[in-house]
Amino acid sequence: MPVCGLLHHGDVGDFINVSFEFFPPRTEQMEKNLWQTVNRLSPLHPHFVSVTYGAGGSTRKYTMRTVARILKETELPVAAHLTCVNATCSEVDQVARSFAALGIRRFVALRGDPINTSGSIYNATPGGYANAVELVAGLKSINSDFDITVSAYPEKHPESLDFAMDIDLLRRKIDNGATRAITQAFFDNDLYERYMDKLYAAGIDIPVLPGILPIHSFRHISNFCNRNGTHIPDWLARRFEGLDNDPKTHALVSAVVAAEQVLDLVERGVKDFHFYTLNHADLSYAVCHLIGIRPKNDRNSSL
Hints:
The chain is α/β, with parallel strands linked by helices. The chain contains eleven helices and nine strands. The chain has helices at about 30-40, 60-75, 90-100, 130-140, 165-175, 190-200, 220-230, 235-240, 245-265, 280-290, 295-300, and strands spanning about 15-20, 50, 80-85, 105-110, 145-150, 180-185, 210, 210, 270-275. The two termini are about 20 Å apart.
């Protein structure tokens, strides 16, 4: 979508939903950054927010504390991430019950990545859930009313042999009680559309929210994408050429690129979006502003 297309979508925010992902802070400065982000984005009235859960439960106490504070100090609907890595079924179930005791009824259920270096082969923990399929079933056995979101991969999970295997895993998660999926971040909307066509052909029709990743650092995101197999189109790389040492222009370009991606997906019929904020509010806020998601008292002035 050309940049000028942004000028003709001032009312898009009236009929789409956004959600935001945060990660739990480990230091005082990180906590300050997180709460600046929460306070900045809360007035946009997201459909929900989620808090990640580190590899092997490494952020368990921080995740729990963050979720508790969001519940106490805001009116935001919160989903807690939960993984299978490095824990038995009973240990994972106890964590889920602890979240539930705080008032959590929404979960993002993920298998999780190996806790060693990138590229490690995943091995299920003895006595633990083998994958997210089993984790979803376990959560539902604790409370059938849990609202469970799972992951989806427009470019196929790196460990899946093919899309058929990937889609079968998603179907099994749905059969066990998942009602929504969020995709891994992607930058080529055609890949998402082709993926959705595959899901529809397979009879899968739950909401699959595109994972939108505003590019805070193209160099860092590029390295991350190379490791996990996410395609970066040539046109996107050209947008950021020469901006490594120009953060202000980089931020402006990032906001426009992400807004263009969202608006193009809106044109294709998508109405729900999940933003990976990386605990930085400004880019996500700017993108939302560009697509018409504003604090309620700003809505009239934006039309």
